Amino acid sequence: MAAMSGKIAQNVIVAQNRQLGSQYRRESHRPVPFMSNLLPIHGGKLAWTCLFSMKLPSLPIYQSGFVSRRTTINCNAASSATAVPNLEKVDFLKLQNGSDIRGVAIAGVEGEPVSLTKPVTEAIGAAFAAWLLEKKKTDASQPLRISIGHDSRISAPVLLDAVSQGVAGAGLDVIQFGLASTPAMFNSTLTEDETVLCPADGAIMITASHLPYNRNGFKFFTNGGGLGKPDIKDILERAADIYSKFTDEGLIDSKRQASASVKRVDYMTLYASDLVKAVRKAAGNIEKPLEGFHIVVDAGNGAGGFFAAKVLEPLGANTSGSQFLEPDGLFPNHIPNPEDKAAMEAITQAVLDNNADLGIIFDTDVDRSAAVDATGREFNRNRLIALTSAIVLEEHPGTTIVTDSVTSDELTTFIEKKLGGKHHRFKRGYKNVIDEAIRLNSIGEESHLAIETSGHGALKENNWLDDGAYLMVLVVQTLCSNLLFHFSSLLELSLTFLFHHLQVKLLNKLASARTSGIGGGSKVLTDLVEGLREPAVAVELRLKIDQNHPDLKGGSFREYGEAVLKHLENLVTLDPKLQKAPVNYEGVRVSGHGGWFLLRLSLHDPVLPLNIEAPSNEDAVKLGLTVASAVKEFHALDTSALDKFVQPS
Ligand SMILES: [Zn+2]
What we know:
By secondary structure, this protein is an alpha/beta fold. It contains 19 helices and 24 strands. The strands form 4 sheets. Strands 1, 2, 3, 4, 5, 6, 7, 8, 9 and 10 form a 10-stranded mixed sheet that branches. The chain has a 6-stranded antiparallel sheet with strand order 20-21-22-23-19-24. The chain has a 4-stranded mixed sheet with strand order 11-12-13-14, sandwiched between helices. β22 and β23 (607-614) form a beta hairpin. It is globular, with a radius of gyration of 26 Å. The termini are far apart. Residues 209, 363, 365, 367-368 line the site of zinc ion. Its EC number is 5.4.2.2. InterPro entries: A-D-PHexomutase_a/b/a-I, A-D-PHexomutase_a/b/a-I/II/III, A-D-PHexomutase_a/b/a-II, A-D-PHexomutase_a/b/a-III, A-D-PHexomutase_C_sf, Alpha-D-phosphohexomutase_SF, Phosphoglucosamine_mutase. Residues 96-240, 282-376, 382-481 form the Alpha-D-phosphohexomutase alpha/beta/alpha domain.
């Protein structure tokens, strides 16, 4: 789905700030949408009042009058609304986490002081606005607008207020979406629909993905995609500068500006309805293509609950047994993370308990997902990549699939030998993977899918938007299209055969499974990954570098890590049983003993993660011993996890 354009005026509520309704966009020539006072997303469940009614630990609020007009949060800071608080010195650059900003937003966890205070957040909002103004080189006759959404974290309302003030104080318009998904925020920069005040010139998602409840952060988008590392650094440098110049008057002024220029719209209803349209279209304009399918959703109390009621149900699916759809920023049930063991166990159990055809699980901000088939088998990591590759390669034969570096050798065999595609194994980091796919296309190598073992996936047809929900739409479409074929005539089948030869094969399997009464609806998906060999042992061990160790001799952990990798590489070339990967973009990757290992340097931390996969524990230990002998001279490395792994049990 590219830019959204559907008009669903009856569902869209544009709410205006209560205080200053009469000042509504006096200077703007854009059409004025109809208004209301509240933003009842998801049948009213996700309105602001809901977020505020949660138990709130002490929130980092520095001006009590500043917080919210509808709540009774007890503020733990100065009561004067005019005095500039003693702003603490803040190292803004420490808030950078790759292409995101991350920090602590809730006090109370030992050793984790609040770093995303209100003034820090306001400065970040103002800095993004300044960055965007420069980028867009606007003539200022029409203020730029920035859409802002958030996940279910309990610090969201406070950060939303602060970041809105930063943006508004810089003279830009703020469009608040309320609870939203990260992909929806990006999409709002592409949507052409004035009833929801889109396209936005820039978008901010307030989220810390799967991190604990006390953290929060920001992701930024323009219609060119997510901002990269250099942009984030630029924004944080600007924020530091803005922060150092905060004055009483400036803060009061930005608050006033925010009151005047903040609008609220129900964007997620439009977003969900466009996902529905995309599936209906792919299914041949059938109103309820998922009729007869039972699909359970686990949103982990994050922002993904809309997928059950607003996407699957309108398509005819039975979603009974879905769980943790209500937003709850304390994440009381499990970590909303498809890579988390307890989370995967929860969705698996839900599928089995409900005899469902399929289970879908999202992370907090819905940019990652995983699925479970009717038998309770997980489509995650290599299996999810295999499944998505199979679907994409049906449509784009021979295309290159770009993945991160920890994908298995068996996945390469599956993609290249069974599916006839090309596997391009690149580096960790979803932005790296997506950028590499874009780069390949730009140099003439066709690539339609970029996907990480974490579940982050992006498709060319979806503008390389990193979108967990869209990936699941693709999976659901496959269910639909195969069901459709089931009802097609023989003639249509033979025609389709020419174009969708793999799907017809699948149909035959599905049809025979149905006639013989075996296999749930998702068997068609399971069959897609048939032939993918999976290792008996798959581990990730983390070797930490002690940065204060004298062995570093004042050098950086990065230099030290590189030295470890170099030494390992030299050792490997001496062992005839081992083979270095011929093409490799990250760390040292070696095949041998029927399996493989990858030792690499973490993107941000002083850690060397080691992945080992092998057909047996014995083989895995042999691979582990190679690494153990290479690292034993490096005394600043904490090798305890590896030592334990290779110890005879
Ligand atoms: Zn996420």
